[in-house]
């Protein structure tokens, strides 16, 4: 089933299939999943454990190649089946941002350094990287914790730093895997709203895998995944009273 | 951004403790090399300070530093008669171990050819050279004797008149300088009963022969002191040291003496080579093997430490890869830590060694060549030690972040 957006596509997944093992041990983790997102669009993927959400996310994130299908990001074909058409690590560096259930901040780097390192990896000068990292942390409301190590930050603050890191290189696509699972509902909603805010303001496409049904109004589109297949598209529910994006 | 330095700062305690451990190992490697250098230097002290051009020793032997050599003391006079010889002196050297102050005292007894040689060439830190033909000694400070202290050796008592510095034999025993006569007396000292038994045995041997029966005087002499029997040989010394006159070719003098059928001649270089290649060669090889073992152990320990440090960072390395970090950046993180660990360990080895080595019972001589060599070895083992960690880091997949 192909799911498309009417805006120009920032990312296109065409018939992605992932099969683990072979013969009697063959498991189809993802079956002909197609999805197209425009820049600035925020999409949620719902579904039970084992539905194939993370498989889809890692495939489109270029860290777990699909068995079949095609991935196009920013108009550039990057995967044709399991075959990489570009230098994947370099492509991730320039075009993708990741946020996970755990913030995965590097423990020996301060908050600002955790953000700046993503830019230094992308050949931004250390001075420019630090300046932009401070701007991003300010933008996400944790500028006052820039010089703290991750240990000294709360879960919500860590997740905001992780979002800042994902945004650092102004990626075409941000992939988030259960980013609010470790947060309380209030902070979880704040993070979801952050995604919408940065998508709209920075023009990045955002795919969020989540179990959190309370924040679905934040997303432009919501899809259900089950047994490796992308299911029906849901319309976003009416915004709740406290759904205003906040930094 | 220097990730290695930031990681070290975050885990400073563990890193410093590890560096201290590596430093202690490297200090042992440095010490081993210093012990060898000290051994060679000690072995060369006597050869160098005596300054003899030639050593005349028992025929077909390699001289007193390699094996037992016995030549008659009067050979000295024969050697003096050779054209081109400026001086010739008896050389006596042997080890003794006696009880002193209820503790064993082991020393290398060295005979000085009094009155020509009173030990003025010995580096003294206190006291004076020998001032009389008997019953005085110059002792190396390592023997622990004090100036003016009395030392009973055999039937005689000797007084310490000078304290020397850095005069140690190749075996590590402190040197004690006596006159040659005293050195021989210490060497051949026999208790009264042994002398009486030897005299009785001589009489019995003479009685059993015709000569003893027809010459009663021989029986009488045989029962007395050995010096009263002209048939007995002159006292034996270890070697005769020779100084060649200025402008004379030492090889020519050596060739003249070497033509005699009862002695062999070695040059100063020969003696030094004998000491290094012969006497301390096994010690050198043993120390060399220990050094190799310690270097290998240091490398393995460093590799394991760096490997575990890398394992601790696997998740962070996966994250860096996910963000698109290039391999040299990740390898650099591990390599820089390895080199920093090596450099810090080297510094600790240097500082601690400087404090500990002078307290060792044997001399530990550290040369700048050894320090440079160790620095190069540390750099090499640091690189080798990092390889295991780098190999592990290179195998980490970015999707490990999801684990």
- Give the distance, in angstroms, between the N- and C-terminal Cα atoms of chain B: 27 Å
Query: Which two chains share the most extensive interface?
Result: A-B, 28 and 23 residues
Q: How many β strands of chain A by DSSP?
A: 12
H/E order of the elements of chain A? Answer: EEEEHEEEHEHHHEHEEE
Strand residues, percent of chain B:
15-25%
Could you say what the CATH architecture of the domain at 2-103 and 172-234 in chain A is?
3-Layer(aba) Sandwich
* CATH third-level topology of the domain at 2-103 and 172-234 in chain A: Rossmann fold
Count of alpha/pi helices of chain A: 6
The average pLDDT value of chain B, as a whole number, equals 85
What does this molecule look like?
The complex is a heterodimer of chains A (247) and B (403). Helix content of chain A is 29%, strand content 28%. With 247 residues, chain A is of the alpha/beta class. The longest helix of chain A is centred in the last third of the chain and has 18 residues, at 185-202. In chain B, helix 10 (281-312) runs parallel beside helix 13 and helix 12 runs antiparallel to helix 13 (368-395). Chain B has helices spanning 3-10, 12-50, 75-80, 180-187, 192-207, 210-214, 216-222, 250-258, 268-279, 281-312, 314-322, 327-356, 368-395; strands at 54-58, 71-72, 85-100, 103-112, 124-127, 136-140, 150-153, 156-164, 174-179, 236-237, 239-244, 263-267. In chain B, the strands form 2 sheets. In chain B, strands 1, 3, 4, 5, 6, 7, 8, 9, 11 and 12 form a 10-stranded mixed β-sheet that branches. Chain B has 2 domains: 3-42 and 281-402, no CATH class; 49-278, no CATH class. In chain B, a hairpin with a 2-residue loop joins strand 7 (150-153) and strand 8. Chain B has 403 residues and is α+β, with helices and mostly antiparallel strands. Chain B has 13 helices and 12 strands. The mean pLDDT of chain B is 85. The interface between A and B is medium-sized, with 28 and 23 residues.
């Amino acid at each position: 089933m192909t799911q498309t957006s009417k805006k120009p596509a920032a990312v296109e997944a065409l018939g992605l299939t992932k099969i683990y093992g072979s013969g009697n041990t063959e498991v189809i983790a993802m079956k002909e999943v197609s999805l197209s997102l425009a820049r600035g669009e925020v999409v949620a993927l719902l579904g039970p454990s084992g539905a194939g959400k993370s498989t889809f996310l890692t495939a489109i994130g270029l860290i777990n190649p699909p068995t079949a299908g095609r991935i196009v990001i920013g108009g550039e074909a990057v995967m044709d089946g399991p075959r990489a058409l570009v230098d994947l690590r370099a492509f991730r560096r320039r075009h993708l941002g990741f946020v996970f259930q755990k913030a995965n901040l590097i423990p020996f780097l301060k908050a600002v350094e955790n953000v700046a390192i993503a830019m230094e990896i992308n050949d931004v000068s250390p001075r420019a990287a630090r300046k932009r990292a401070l701007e991003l942390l300010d933008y996400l409301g944790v500028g006052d914790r820039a010089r703290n190590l991750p240990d000294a930050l709360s879960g919500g603050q860590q997740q905001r730093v992780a979002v800042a890191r994902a945004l650092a290189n102004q990626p075409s696509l941000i992939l988030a895997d259960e980013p609010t699972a470790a947060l309380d509902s209030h902070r979880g909603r704040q993070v979801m709203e952050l995604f919408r805010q940065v998508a709209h303001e920075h023009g990045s496409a955002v795919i969020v895998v989540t179990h959190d049904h309370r924040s679905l109004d934040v997303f432009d589109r919501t899809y259900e995944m089950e047994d490796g297949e992308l299911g029906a598209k849901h319309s976003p529910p009416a915004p709740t009273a406290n759904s205003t994006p906040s930094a | 951004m220097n990730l290695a330095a930031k990681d070290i700062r975050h885990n400073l305690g563990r890193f410093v403790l590890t560096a201290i451990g590596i430093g202690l190992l490297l200090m042992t490697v440095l010490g081993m090399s210093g012990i060898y250098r000290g051994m060679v230097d000690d072995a060369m002290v006597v050869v160098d300070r005596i300054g003899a051009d030639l050593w005349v020793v028992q025929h077909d032997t390699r001289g007193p530093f390699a094996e037992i050599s016995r030549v008659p003391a009067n050979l000295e006079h024969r050697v003096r008669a050779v054209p081109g010889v400026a001086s010739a002196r008896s050389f006596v050297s042997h080890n003794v171990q006696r009880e002193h102050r209820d503790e064993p005292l082991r020393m290398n007894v060295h005979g000085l050819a009094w009155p020509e040689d009173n030990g003025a060439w010995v580096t003294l830190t206190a006291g004076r050279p020998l001032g009389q033909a008997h019953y005085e000694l110059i002792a190396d400070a390592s023997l622990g004797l004090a100036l003016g202290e009395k030392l009973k050796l055999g039937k005689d008592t000797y007084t310490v008149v000078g304290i020397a510095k850095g005069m140690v034999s190749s075996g590590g025993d402190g040197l004690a300088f006596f006159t040659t006569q005293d050195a021989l007396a210490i060497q051949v000292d026999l208790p009264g009963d042994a002398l009486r038994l030897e005299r009785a045995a001589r009489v019995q041997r003479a009685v059993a022969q015709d000569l003893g029966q027809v010459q009663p005087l021989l029986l009488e002499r045989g029962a007395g002191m050995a010096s009263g029997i002209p048939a007995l040989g002159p006292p034996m010394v270890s070697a005769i040291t020779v100084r060649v006159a200025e402008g004379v070719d030492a090889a020519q003098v050596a060739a003249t003496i070497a033509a005699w059928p009862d002695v062999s001649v070695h040059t100063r270089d020969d003696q030094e080579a004998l000491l290094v290649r012969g006497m301390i060669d096994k010690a050198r090889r043993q120390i060399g093997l220990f050094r190799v073992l310690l270097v290998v152990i240091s490398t393995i320990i460093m590799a394991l430490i760096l490997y575990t440090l890398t394992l601790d960072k696997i998740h962070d390395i996966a994250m860096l890869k996910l963000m698109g970090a290039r391999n040299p950046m990740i390898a650099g993180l591990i390599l820089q830590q390895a080199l920093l660990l090596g450099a810090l360990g080297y510094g600790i080895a240097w500082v601690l060694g400087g404090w500990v080595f002078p307290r060792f019972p044997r001399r530990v001589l550290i040369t700048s060549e050894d320090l440079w060599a160790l620095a190069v070895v540390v750099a090499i083992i640091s690189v080798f030690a990092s390889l295991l960690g780098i190999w592990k880091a290179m195998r980490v997949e970015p999707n490990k972040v999801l684990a």
